[in-house]
């Protein structure tokens, strides 16, 4: 049995697989988020406790010897530990918006672009640079008490194994890492006013660290690897490793990733380059802030359940009777394929004759247009895999194929956990057939007529987006 651990933002999951990649079972626990005034935080002890709980459950439910475990989880944010490995304060989430004004300032004074031209990473309020700078100004005692600033899965790996505190290249890619040298760029640290806090940046283990479990959650001695964070782990789990091939993750975050052998620091800043375990290979990532969370908000507002989505999508035509949604619902604005901290969602074309079905379809279409924008900016030229909670809706998956105008390789199940296992197997020298582990469940082809309609709709979406961005800058 191989176990993949995925420490998400709202849910922790542990998935068990057999030797050919079939899921044997999944255990999950919800996680709480504290939200107030743009601040989004998580309790580290709650997160770690949920990890141990799901591991206890899956190892009890599937009583097979554990050959290997791999770890992945949410990226960005700031997870501060003291010298004893204890939390200094609640973790600041990647969804946090307290540093909005700081990012605005850096956009205005050129700091933002200067960092992008060195690292290929477009900073957003919830990434470590702005968050650390905000804490340094408003909560310096927290940084004084901390020994290291980690990412979520790094904290979990340290607690499960007792291994020295480190991070790895994928998590470290934003915003301090030079993507070519794969080391921290001290000039970037200086530009963000954090030179005096340089010692907080966790050492980068390249390749990623391996260790054995201490016996909490996993049997003592179980080999485990601190794998890539959830976006690149999903790419591995979906079989996206060739240059030009892409992955669209339709989850809480809407993320587009495309494999590349080149780092291009020109063009409009947006997204980031994620280093992989293969030097000379990157994932050009455009992780938009909001994916299924936008639809969740519309469903809760209209009193519609997730089970009704497919029926509602069938009940209104492409174009949703003129209703349009710009799906930028995050309180910290947007980060890919452009950065606009003040951008907000817009709902237009609504009248007394509009129905919940129109609102649902318009939201799904808007998310599809945002996904297409991200994929084009990331340089997609090859095949496209899709995964995430949104793909559990067959009707929405067909809609996405039509909006994107290309076949979709649908990869179901716990794709991030699967990628974590594959990464751990590579690090520990365990031979697994990656092609067998990442075979798509189905391929969904676009409908030519609907794709033509959405071609025009996409052009209109870009025009509305341009107008919205102009308004928030005024």
TrEMBL record:
**Is Lipid biosynthesis one of the keywords UniProt gives this record?**
no
As one GO molecular function, the record gives: kinase activity
Which ranges carry the Carbohydrate kinase FGGY C-terminal domain? 276-425
Q: Name one GO biological process term.
A: carbohydrate metabolic process
Which residues belong to any copy of the Carbohydrate kinase FGGY N-terminal domain?
1-237
Keyword terms = Kinase, Transferase
What the entry lists under Pfam families is as follows: FGGY_C, FGGY_N
What domain of life? Bacteria
Q: Which family does it belong to?
A: Belongs to the FGGY kinase family.
Its name, as the record gives it, is: Xylulokinase
Taxonomic lineage of the native organism: Bacteria, Bacillati, Actinomycetota, Actinomycetes, Kitasatosporales
